[in-house]
Amino acid sequence: GGFVEGFPAEKSDLRVGDQVIRLNGTAVSNWQEMTMRILENEGADLEFSVIRNGQSVIVHVMPQLSEGKDIFGQLRRLPRIGIKPSEEFIKERYKLREALIKGAQFEWQLTALTYEALWRLVIGQLSFKMISGPIGIVSMAGSAAQMGFVALLQFTAVLSVSLAVINLLPIPALDGGHLFFLLIEAIRRKRVSLAFQERVTQIGFYVLMTLMVLVVYNDLINIGAIEKLKSLVFHPG
User: Fold this and answer.
1) What is the pLDDT of residues 162-196, one digit of tens each?
2) More confidently predicted of 194 and 69
3) Spatial distance between the Cα atoms of 162 and 73, rounded to a whole number of angstroms
4) What is the pLDDT of residue 90?
């Protein structure tokens, strides 16, 4: 890794090549965990436990608040220390039980983030422009593939969880909608009429198709296709 010039890490006792094993007493095993811990600390003093030349060293770093985008793309003041990840991947092998626990924790974090993003979208804290559709997904998959197989695999996991979460939303035409009808029937102890289910499902389908069109349009804007089309139409030649 390395340091960003002018940030606290550069002036601290951290050294290039240090392997961070704990942050504020909590074990961290990857870059994502460490950055999340720094953000959760909200600018308070950070205690890094690092391995340096085979020895354990404790280093304290006080983050500085600077404007930047959070994981949802929102501009806010974030605690930063100015470190950059190493380009070298370190492979860790876990026993089956530990691997299952790690995987479950990762999936839970992704699920929680997906629901939080959807909620922020509903209440207006997240711009619709942040939502990607098929075109955006292909573009991101290509970028992940260029970073290597591990990055592509991780992207696939994120995409799978996101699709599963959306599919379980109580929206007619999705699996979550069918589960919602079953829940209503269980509470009422009476079947919902087939005609009503069909009407509601049709409405849900039209809503989903409308959202799909908007998402694709958003993708086209993000890749600059709309601007190119406008220039061709209004400024031919």
Assistant:
1) 888 888 888 888 888 888 888 988 898 888 888 88
2) 194
3) 17
4) 63
Residue with tokens 């049709």: 202
Domain coordinates of the chain in residue numbers? 2-84, 96-234
For domain 2-84, give the CATH number: 2.30.42.10
Identify residue 9 by its one-letter amino acid code: A
**Number of helical H runs and strand E runs in the chain:** 8, 8
Q: What's the whole-number mean pLDDT along residues 63-74?
A: 71
As given in the structure block, the two tokens for residue 42 are: 């909200």
- Which DSSP string do the residues of the chain spell out, in sequence order? -EE-TTSHHHHSS--TT-EEEEETTEE--SHHHHHHHHHHTTT--EEEEEEETTEEEEEEE--EEEEEE-TTS-EEEEEE--EE--SS-------HHHHHHHHHHHHHHHHHHHHHHHHHHHHTSS-GGG---HHHHHHHHHHHHHH-HHHHHHHHHHHHHHHHHHHTSS-TTSHHHHHHHHHHHHHHTSPPPHHHHHHHHHHHHHHHHHHHHHHHHHHHHHTTHHHHHHHHHHS--
Over 70: is that where the pLDDT of 87 sits?
no
The average confidence (pLDDT) of the chain is 80
pLDDT score for 72: 62
Asked if the model's pLDDT at residue 236 lies above 60, the reply is: no
Q: What are 5-43's pLDDT values in tens digits?
A: 888 888 888 888 888 888 888 888 777 778 878 887 776
Q: Residue 148 burial (CB < 10 Å; 0-12/13-18/19+)? A: exposed
